[in-house]
Amino acid sequence: MPNTLPTHIAIIMDGNGRWAKQRHLPRLAGHRAGAEAVKRTIEAAQKLGIKYLTLYAFSTENWTRPQDEINGLMDLLSKTLDTYTQEAQAKNFRLLVSGSRDPLPPTVLEKIDKAVQTTAHNTGLTVNLALNYGARQEILHAVNALLAQGKQTVSLQDIADHLYQPQVPDPELIIRTSGEERLSNFLLWQAAYSEFYFTPVLWPDFNAQELQRALDTYAHRTRRFGGV
Ligand code: IPE
Ligand code: IPE
Ligand code: MG
Known about the structure:
Oligomer: single chain
Distance between the termini: 16 Å
Structural class: alpha/beta
Order of helices and strands: EHHEHEHEHHEEH
Radius of gyration: 17 Å
Strand order of the largest sheet: 3-4-2-1-5-6
CATH topology: Undecaprenyl pyrophosphate synthetase
Helix content: 40-55%
CATH superfamily: Decaprenyl diphosphate synthase-like
Bound molecules: 3-methylbut-3-enyl trihydrogen diphosphate, magnesium ion
């Protein structure tokens, strides 16, 4: 029996820079094209009836990039958060953000808060944007929250309950584009039993058909969870 549709798909959206380089364009042009792929992918996931889509947009390690690329990315994020909020209202999807607020610029933080508040009551797909996200930092954040409560020992459930978005279930499927096959500090806790799908397609070229390919592959994986 093929696996049923995943409830939660998480995507490491990689390859914007290489996409731009192939076209002799600045890296930021790749990020702009990547933002279009985000729109297409949200729409495709919504149509398929996926409940949660986590998108890795900016890692805690991405601050090591050249300052002009960071500025360009933050600017693009501010603009796209507005567009995504409008689209979310029109199409009934909800926006969540996972990550640390510090040191995101105030303009981006304002847009995040507005996006999350405005779309909070939408009942369709939940889009969880991993922004200034690091999985080790997320686990550390959970442990520190538990220590602050005075806990002496913690349970697995305690940690799961103090992740950035505890209501989001673990992803059944994690997709990474651009041919890289690593997690890059993404969802280390939640990925314990996720299926992985790697594709050489660069993120700006990702679309509904590529998503369907990943889902077809996922459908035929045997998930054992340590059993037989
Ligand atoms: C992914 O594309 C987007 C971010 C990490 C912000 P990259 O910018 O990493 O593109 P490549 O890996 O250099 O091609
Ligand atoms: C991972 O991609 C982060 C995002 C997609 C936002 P990177 O391009 O930053 O990862 P590495 O450096 O190749 O591991
Ligand atoms: Mg990359």
